[in-house]
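queue> pop job 88
queue> type: inverse folding (structure -> sequence)
queue> payload:
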């Protein structure tokens, strides 16, 4: 891949980025270069230190810990991440995911049962933000509850020990688009870091300059962080005249000039007031000796260092940088994938960049931490794609890392899963995860046995993983069959009950499966182009369990909030939500949401095929195609770019017969430029029409076809119109 010059990007690439909301240099850099080691610091998240402390306290005193998840893939993977992490340091941890009977969110019955077994700490994942009563019930039973969730925020928050939700204001999360499993992973990233030697140590980035002729200190600056959270104050002094007078660079409370020995004393009190100090220099041991000589000159106290790190050496050892060829700090940082554009408006920009270089290099130097992050990112991949959260911001980094990691042979349980669904030894992408792997994991919850998926994702032996994968596979096959029959029932209901005359589609039936309402709602939305509300009616207990799937700006959760007076329970997101309502309140509820959908002008027409940009064939080349590959991984909010070109002429058509299907290879031309194209799954009739045509309008994707060491750019036609 060619070197990316952010200042001189291809205009078409810039436009594609703009369509995705990626405009600033900072965002462009992250889009192309962010990886698992440059993710935001978890300790910047509010209350993270309190979380780590409470967890370590529970472990130290052998408290029983319960991870309380949800039955879908996001909830199961989130629970698995925390359980897999904690079981390495304590035997007193258990994970629970609710079935149909328990329902979504915290249950008082479940809480009471675990309270009786001695549980004193519950960590929720992918749920809990709306469970005000249940959290209070837990408190009454002497249980601390830490809520980790990513669903929309209700009016009243539960009185939990701690709450972590990226949708809350001013929490320190860098994105509101995290899945439940990504939130869980962020917490565990901090917890695992707490077992490294830098945890809770003062990390000092020190930069200074000494006059070679006079051996006098000309300038000295220092930036301190703990767990890589920057101190509010930056230490800095510089010599202003030859009379040994120094003024403060950054802090205004040093109103008077200081002497060199006073500056060094101030530095010592700023940097070395604690015992746990780590010093980071550029120039390492040589620079440290110079500093020591300065202190010895004034007989000032300087503590012994357990750790002194040299940035240049770290970059050479773990970043693969040839330091002899690097001329500037910015160049050095960019080679190490540090986003320098984030700090352009900060006065002490270079100090922060050095701190970020050190943070990245430290993560890369810690093999155990590195392996943990890579391994657990696989579960973040499963849950994030399954929950259809936007694949933007940090989510892209998780997914890119996980897809690469999934190719390695040492992940026993995941290889067993991939083998069972015939994805082993193939290049797995987000589409395969979305279409094959996510439904496989979700099937257990949909069929009322989410514990099977949980046990599979936490299994430790190949034998156990194999047995459980068979169980989940069978559940998924049953799910497929039921989905088809349930969908037919729902379609018949829509036809017979004139459901299309309303702004939203509402179906209530006791003939469909309770665990499939969300899946059916998604299929109805896709088929009919309207927000779908699908309810399973239980004749036995007089309760309807429903799911909503909405499109675009149609807000499912707001609709439920509007009708909440008739609901027993509800929660979810803008485009996917769930609820329960009594049969007696159903009619009132239905009228309420229909009124809401009408007033809010819910979209009632099917989406037309769209494209990103109109393109000329002269712009299609290998360099452009390689740029497009950097847009991967694709998914919700970052779909693969589709282009449009009109009035294209066909120079030649070649038919390829394969697997009883006809595929077409075409050579196309527009304004003197040519392009090789593919149309999959065509027919003799369509081929004849194309041969007889003068022009065609095409929408297409651009890919690099690699074979036997050669590369060719091809366009893959999605839709076409013959002129």
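queue> result:
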């Amino acid at each position: 891949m060619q070197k990316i010059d952010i200042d001189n990007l291809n205009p078409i690439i810039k436009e594609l980025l703009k369509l995705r909301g990626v405009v600033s240099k900072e965002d462009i850099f992250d889009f192309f270069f962010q990886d698992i080691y440059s993710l935001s610091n978890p300790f910047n998240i509010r209350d993270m230190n309190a979380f780590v402390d409470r967890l370590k306290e529970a472990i130290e005193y052998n408290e029983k810990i319960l991870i309380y998840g949800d039955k879908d893939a996001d909830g199961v993977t989130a629970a698995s991440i925390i359980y897999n992490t904690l079981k390495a340091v304590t035997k007193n941890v258990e994970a629970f995911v609710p079935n149909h009977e328990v329902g979504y969110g915290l249950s008082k019955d479940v809480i009471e049962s675990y309270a009786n077994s001695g549980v004193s700490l519950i960590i929720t994942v992918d749920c809990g933000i709306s469970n005000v009563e249940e959290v209070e019930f837990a408190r009454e039973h002497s249980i601390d509850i830490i809520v980790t969730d990513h669903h929309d925020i209700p009016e009243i928050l539960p009185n939990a020990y701690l709450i972590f939700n990226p949708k809350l204001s001013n929490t320190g999360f860098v994105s509101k688009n995290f899945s439940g499993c990504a939130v869980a992973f962020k917490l565990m990233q901090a917890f695992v870091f707490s077992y490294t030697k830098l945890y809770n140590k003062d990390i000092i980035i020190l930069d200074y300059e000494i006059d070679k002729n006079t051996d006098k200190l000309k300038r000295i600056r220092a930036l301190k962080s703990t767990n890589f959270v920057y101190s509010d104050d930056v230490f800095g002094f510089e010599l202003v005249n030859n009379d040994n007078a120094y003024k403060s660079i950054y802090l205004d409370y040093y109103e008077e000039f200081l002497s060199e020995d006073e500056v060094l004393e101030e530095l010592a009190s700023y940097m070395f007031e604690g015992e746990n100090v780590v010093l980071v220099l550029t120039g390492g041991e040589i620079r440290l000796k110079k500093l020591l000589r300065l202190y010895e000159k004034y007989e000032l106290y300087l503590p012994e260092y357990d750790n002194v790190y040299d940035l240049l050496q770290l970059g050479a050892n773990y970043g693969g940088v040839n330091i002899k060829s690097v001329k500037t700090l910015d160049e050095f940082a960019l080679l190490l994938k540090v986003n320098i554009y984030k700090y352009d408006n900060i006065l002490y920009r270079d100090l922060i960049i050095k701190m970020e270089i050190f943070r990245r290099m430290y993560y890369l130097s810690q093999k155990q931490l590195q392996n943990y992050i890579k391994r657990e990112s696989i579960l973040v991949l499963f849950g994030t794609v399954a929950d259809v959260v936007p694949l933007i911001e940090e989510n892209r980094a998780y997914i890119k890392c996980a897809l690469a990691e999934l190719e390695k042979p040492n992940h026993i349980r995941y290889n067993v899963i991939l083998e069972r669904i015939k994805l082993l030894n193939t290049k797995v992408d987000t589409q395969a995860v979305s279409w094959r792997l996510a439904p496989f994991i979700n099937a257990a919850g949909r069929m009322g046995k989410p514990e099977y998926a949980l046990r599979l994702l936490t299994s430790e032996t190949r034998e156990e993983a194999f047995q459980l994968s068979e169980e989940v596979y069978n559940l998924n096959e049953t799910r497929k069959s039921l989905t088809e029959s349930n969908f037919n029932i729902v379609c018949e209901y829509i036809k017979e009950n004139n459901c299309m005359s309303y702004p939203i589609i509402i179906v209530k039936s006791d003939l469909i499966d309770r665990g499939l309402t969300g899946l059916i709602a998604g299929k109805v939305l896709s088929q009919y182009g309207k927000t779908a509300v699908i309810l399973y009616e239980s004749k036995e207990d007089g309760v309807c369990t429903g799911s909503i799937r909405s499109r675009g700006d149609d807000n499912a959760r707001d609709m439920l909030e509007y009708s909440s007076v008739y609901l027993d329970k509800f929660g979810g997101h803008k485009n996917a939500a769930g609820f329960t309502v009594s049969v007696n309140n159903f009619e009132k509820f239905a009228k309420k949401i229909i009124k809401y959908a009408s007033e809010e002008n819910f979209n009632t027409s099917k989406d037309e095929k769209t494209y990103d940009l109109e393109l000329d064939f002269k712009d299609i080349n290998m360099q452009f195609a390689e740029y497009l590959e950097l847009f991967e991984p694709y998914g919700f909010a970052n779909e693969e770019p589709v282009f449009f070109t009109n009035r294209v002429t066909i120079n030649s058509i070649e038919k390829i017969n394969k697997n009883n299907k006809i595929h077409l290879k075409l050579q196309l031309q527009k304004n003197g430029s040519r392009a090789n194209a593919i149309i999959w799954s065509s027919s003799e009739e369509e081929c004849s029409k194309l041969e007889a045509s003068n022009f065609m309008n095409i929408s297409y994707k651009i890919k690099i076809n690699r074979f036997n060491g050669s590369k060719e750019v091809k366009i893959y036609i999605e839709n076409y119109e013959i002129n």
